[in-house]
Amino acid sequence: MQSELRKKLLDAFSRSEDEYVSGQFLADTLGCSRTAIWKHIEDLRKEGFELEAVRKKGYRITKVPERITADEIRLGLSTKFLGTQIHYEESVGSTQKIAHHLANEDAPEGTVIIAEEQLSGRGRMDRKWHSPKYTGVWMSVILRPNIPPPKAPQLTLITAVAVVQAIEELTGLSPQIKWPNDILINGKKVTGILTELQADADRIISIIIGIGINVNQQIEDYPDEIKNIATSLSIESGKKLQRAELVKLLLHKFENLYLLYLEKGFYPIKLLWESCAISIGKTITARTITGSIHGKALGITEDGVLMIEDEAGKVHHVYSADIELS
């Protein structure tokens, strides 16, 4: 009940467009007393929100906190179901682990788990993901699509397009996708995506998508072993960015693409993905568990499988691999 009241309060401020909102209007909207409104306002201040209170005018938010709390994300969030439930943590081992637990507890589709820091964040093949405090976006999203389990990897590609669109709109940068789950800027990794499946033999129970975005790190924040291969949006744009704004944009872009996918299938996503891909038409090496394939990347199939044509003209279908650009 408390979180629902807080959501209504933030929705009212979002609709006000920087105008003052009267205490009586807020009390009527939330169905509570003006004293209760005052207590909610004080709670927001404790979280780092700055609010002006002017007699006979009401309240106005003048500054939001640097953190990416559930309240900051809800302020101005325009989605239908993504982010209707947000679990915020200061520090966690992994948002994916929390998401798995919540999914098993019947958390609704669109539930978001977000943290300021991950102590054991990981990517594909259990590689460690460096997730320092207050610098990036470390989040997981629970989805429950009515699609066959073999199509689950398509959600990774949908997420990648949504990340690219959100970064472009917020920063003006031009990210590119490296199949299947990396987002690069100027050849360096800025985002990783990890998709995990909970399913029976013939139906998906949940798909949990982990997203790690390097936002405000500086070069000195990276361990020496990844300084040459990792970057951040701040390094590339030359400015500090509002992480909550990126999260809101990402949820909005992803929901639109996800609903398009459920209605029209993968083909529209395939076209968008290929337009953002760094490897299409280029010579690459795909290192799989059974060996390496060297050749020209032709694109992806309607199932999201990478196609590589080798020097003999044979087209290989690659389902999982590490990709190196030649």
Description of the structure:
Its EC number is 6.3.4.15. Pfam families: BPL_C, BPL_LplA_LipB, HTH_11. Residues 75-262 form the BPL/LPL catalytic domain. Biotin binds at residues 118, 122-124, 189. Belongs to the biotin--protein ligase family. There is one protein chain. By secondary structure, the chain is of the alpha+beta class. The chain folds into three domains: 2-63, Winged helix-like DNA-binding domain superfamily/Winged helix DNA-binding domain (Arc Repressor Mutant, subunit A), CATH 1.10.10; 70-276, 2-Layer Sandwich (BirA Bifunctional Protein, domain 2); 283-325, SH3 type barrels (Roll), CATH 2.30.30.100. The protein is built from nine helices and 14 strands. The protein has helices spanning 2-16, 23-30, 34-46, 70-74, 95-104, 154-171, 233-237, 243-264, 267-276; strands spanning 50-54, 58-63, 86-89, 112-115, 136-143, 176-178, 182-185, 188-199, 204-214, 283-288, 291-300, 306-309, 315-318, 322-325. Strands 3-4-5-9-8-7-6 form a seven-stranded mixed beta sheet, sandwiched between helices. A hairpin with a 5-residue loop joins strand 11 (291-300) and strand 12 (306-309). Helix 6 (154-171) crosses helix 8 (243-264) and helix 6 packs across helix 9 (267-276). The longest helix has 22 residues, at 243-264. The termini are far apart. The mean pLDDT is 90.
